[in-house]
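Before surveying the methods themselves, it helps to consider a single example record, giving the amino acid sequence and backbone structure tokens:
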Amino acid sequence: MKITVVGATGLVGSKMLQVLDEQHVHIDELIVAASERSVGKEIVFQGKTHKVVSVEEAIDKRPDIAIFSAGGAASKQYAPRFAANGTFVIDNSSAWRMEKDVPLVVPEINADTITPDTHIIANPNCSTIQMVMALAPIHKAYGIKRLVISTYQSVSGSGLKGINQLNCEEMLIGRDSACTVSTTTKPAYPHQIYRNVLPHGGDFCDNDYTTEEEKLVNETRKILRDPDIAITATVCRVPVTGGHSEAVNVETLRPFEIKEVRRLLENMPGVVVQDDPANNLYPMAITSFDKDEVFVGRIRRDHSIANGMNLWIVSDNIRKGAATNAVQIAKHLIETNLVN
């Protein structure tokens, strides 16, 4: 089994390597690839030192699986070339997600969309992954009519640039006046993020929604295989280092009992219910950090509409929202003998 990680030196790429190790994925040969400026750097994996190679060299090595976390432009350029060699590409960017013939996969929900012919597989957006993990059993049982989504997304969703801006602002404004925000590096956000909330994730579109909000709409419909779900979303960036939180209002097509909804969520693989308000137990970003599960709480009926409920959904966006989901797809390919 020959596996390459493209973008191995980045925030998500390094986490992918960690999860590959933790999940005990069988690898005979690991190829770590990145941009030209990182070629020659060394990465230690399972006690062995690997030199970073160029993407061109990784293509020539014809890996069985290539896990991409190198951005949309690199994916568009190189993923088809890997695929042409018979490699299964698992891409973490938004480049392929809405392509008709490219499966958009959360393994617990729709791994069956992967076939021997789908050599490019898209990893959904981090905020979408955690939400559909909670929504899938509800949609299967009752049908979903409408979703109203508000997200509170950590700065790690913007990569190291977002984390660095928050940390530097905290030092500058909060503790150490000697720190200055770099003038040579463009900040991740147009405003201060420290002690602030920005109603802005991604780029603004012509319809006044952002690209992050549009992803929640389009990707959710594709993964749940229901183009008729009415969805509206507001994405916010909050001064949290890791872990995305979401308040999701769900209107179902058929009546439900909250006890049954809770049971469905408790039985969903990869979901952990934390819902004991009397003891202040509910999901939080700080307690979801560096965990693979999706945590759901504040499960309650919305009394303002028929068949309405509210959910609070939290997950580590770098793990289940990116690295873990991609590794789970790789494991599915191996375990189902799509690659051998």
Remarks:
- The CA atoms of residues 42 and 191 lie 36 Å apart.
- The longest strand covers residues 144-153.
